[in-house]
Design a protein that fits this description.
Shape: rod-shaped
Number of helices: 2
Distance between the termini: 124 Å
Structural class: mainly alpha
Helix content: over 70%
Strand content: under 5%
Radius of gyration: 44 Å
Number of strands: 0
């Protein structure tokens, strides 16, 4: 970098043509440094985005797994409830038939 400054100073002592060339060199070095800085920032941003996406996907997989487990539990519960309701229906049917049988036996006894 010091050599570049010395070269620029020497060119500035020359005529305007050399001063223009020196300013182009300095401007070119500044542009290269700026581009390198932005490229590094862009690479960091891409890496951060990739990491965030992976974290999001893994948490989403966990949520889906939890929901699947909850759905399985709900299906088992619904199956059990359906079975119990069928048993209740059958029991009610039996009770009604017994009541009808008792009514008919009371009516026939009279």
């Amino acid at each position: 970098m010091e050599q570049l400054v010395e070269l620029t100073a020497q060119a500035a002592r020359q005529n305007d043509r050399w001063l223009f060339i020196a300013s182009l060199i300095v401007l070119g070095c500044f542009a290269v440094c700026t581009m390198r800085y932005f490229v590094r920032q862009h690479e960091r941003l891409i890496a951060d985005h990739k990491q965030a996406r992976e974290d999001y996907q893994s948490s989403l997989r966990g949520i889906v797994a939890e929901q699947s487990a909850a759905n399985v539990k709900l299906m088992v519960c619904l199956d059990n409830n359906s079975r119990v309701l069928e048993e209740c229906r059958d029991e009610l049917k039996l009770c009604r038939e017994e009541r009808r049988g008792q009514k008919f036996s009371v009516i026939s006894q009279q």
